[in-house]
Amino acid sequence: MGFRVVLVEDSISLGALYTEYLYSEGADVTLVHYGEDALTEIHRQPPDILILDIKLPDMSGMDILAQVNESHPDITVIMITAHGTIDIAVDAMRSGAFDFLVKPFDSKRLAITLRNALKQRQLVKLVTQYENSLPKANYQGFIGESLAMQTVYKTIDCVANSKASVFIFGESGTGKEVCAQAIHNVGNRKHKSFIALNCASIPKELIESQIFGHTKGAFTGAVSQRDGAATQADGGTFFLDEICEMELELQSKLLRFIQTGVFRRVGGSKDEKVDVRFISATNKDPWQQVQEGLFREDLYYRLHVIPIELPPLNQRGKDILLIANKLLKQYAKEEQKNFKGFSAAAQKQLQLYAWPGNVRQLQNIVRQIVVLNNADEVEVAMLPSQISKPLSNLVQAPSVYGANQTVAVMQTAPTSSAQPENSTLDNTPLSDINTVVIEALWKTEKRTIETAIELCEGNIPKAAAMLDISPSTIYRKKQSWDDMELK
């Protein structure tokens, strides 16, 4: 059966008997007689099942149950009790124990309880696997269930417990600090400090002191010794936002600090050492900054260990409406307004807008709508003018570091009225309607997908995530296009 049990029984004879019962069920058993020994064994190698006597020589089994529930909630606990403590055993089940066995019990009674516990563990595992396979609509401050964001969530889960440096990049307003905070919150440093420093918002004369701290008298105004972000983040996470804005001279000092964990305060004469996990972010192309001599190449390689790219909002499909509705309800509650949602026309406009300011811009616009209006539903007339303009006939293609490209969804033949290059049927005069050349839908789709693949340097899974479809969809469509072109 292949499962591990820690048995806690102070009676040597009963412990030996119960151990034999467990062996017959296929368990790998560790027998201990004291509560402290049980806790040590659990922390050394957590078992699948803990069989725990309520009364032990050194401590109460209820205290052990409470500690196990706190530190190892996935362990299934079965309590052992005498007739006189059945009420306590019932309390134990209310506190998280799976079941209890009343002494004396035989191998058959133990086997039934044990098998039920294993079945429950299997069901919990299946439910967890199912839930983990579903798209997450909310994750550590993020809202969104698009494929692109699911990739981000999975990457955060994978890197959270590592000490490897993470480099987050993406356009302004995509949530880089939210991502850094999520890595900290999911990881094993969550109980320590998360210290964020924006390298673009601090004057270059002060940023070294902000990072490393200073001693009394180090410069004019330094009336006392002050800890910097490096000291404050000891044991936790240090987030350097807009890292590419840092002066080259300070970059060399930061490189030494990242390599060794050792730094020296401004005006100080001795080194100090801390344990810090580094996360950096930028809205620029960091490698381009290296090539232009604005960012040290050795620092780039030291920080760019695990890259995480946050997609622009215009590449996240239905996430736009998920975020907008969440914000609308939040702001309506704060402002004591009656808004419940967006009209169908307003939703369409929100999805077709390019969102150059990403999530931050969407937050500001929803806040503006709520403050300036009051209704049950957001109508198109309530949207700012840049969003409520007539629909464009351009499809936004994936962007790389903010360089948006567009693909026309319709081509027009030359006309005597000199139609604009990107005109649509909606604004084409009826007299000229016969001059419009309508392209087959599969060709338009083909061009958009091929553009995405090209912008992703041939990486089909990445292109699929940007387009909010699965890679298998792209492969299937490529096959169908080949069949279409052969006809």
From TrEMBL:
<dbReference type="InterPro" id="IPR002197">
    <property type="entry name" value="HTH_Fis"/>
</dbReference>
<keyword id="KW-0547">Nucleotide-binding</keyword>
<dbReference type="Pfam" id="PF25601">
    <property type="entry name" value="AAA_lid_14"/>
</dbReference>
<keyword id="KW-0238">DNA-binding</keyword>
<dbReference type="Pfam" id="PF00072">
    <property type="entry name" value="Response_reg"/>
</dbReference>
<dbReference type="InterPro" id="IPR009057">
    <property type="entry name" value="Homeodomain-like_sf"/>
</dbReference>
<dbReference type="InterPro" id="IPR002078">
    <property type="entry name" value="Sigma_54_int"/>
</dbReference>
<dbReference type="InterPro" id="IPR001789">
    <property type="entry name" value="Sig_transdc_resp-reg_receiver"/>
</dbReference>
<dbReference type="InterPro" id="IPR058031">
    <property type="entry name" value="AAA_lid_NorR"/>
</dbReference>
<dbReference type="GO" id="GO:0043565">
    <property type="term" value="F:sequence-specific DNA binding"/>
</dbReference>
<dbReference type="GO" id="GO:0005524">
    <property type="term" value="F:ATP binding"/>
</dbReference>
<dbReference type="InterPro" id="IPR011006">
    <property type="entry name" value="CheY-like_superfamily"/>
</dbReference>
<dbReference type="Pfam" id="PF02954">
    <property type="entry name" value="HTH_8"/>
</dbReference>
<feature type="domain" description="Response regulatory">
    <location>
        <begin position="4"/>
        <end position="118"/>
    </location>
</feature>
<feature type="modified residue" description="4-aspartylphosphate">
    <location>
        <position position="53"/>
    </location>
</feature>
<feature type="domain" description="Sigma-54 factor interaction">
    <location>
        <begin position="142"/>
        <end position="371"/>
    </location>
</feature>
<protein>
    <submittedName>
        <fullName>Sigma-54-dependent Fis family transcriptional regulator</fullName>
    </submittedName>
</protein>
<dbReference type="InterPro" id="IPR003593">
    <property type="entry name" value="AAA+_ATPase"/>
</dbReference>
<keyword id="KW-0805">Transcription regulation</keyword>
<dbReference type="GO" id="GO:0000160">
    <property type="term" value="P:phosphorelay signal transduction system"/>
</dbReference>
<keyword id="KW-0902">Two-component regulatory system</keyword>
<dbReference type="Pfam" id="PF00158">
    <property type="entry name" value="Sigma54_activat"/>
</dbReference>
<dbReference type="InterPro" id="IPR025944">
    <property type="entry name" value="Sigma_54_int_dom_CS"/>
</dbReference>
<keyword id="KW-0067">ATP-binding</keyword>
<keyword id="KW-0597">Phosphoprotein</keyword>
<dbReference type="GO" id="GO:0006355">
    <property type="term" value="P:regulation of DNA-templated transcription"/>
</dbReference>
<dbReference type="InterPro" id="IPR027417">
    <property type="entry name" value="P-loop_NTPase"/>
</dbReference>
<keyword id="KW-0804">Transcription</keyword>
<dbReference type="InterPro" id="IPR025943">
    <property type="entry name" value="Sigma_54_int_dom_ATP-bd_2"/>
</dbReference>
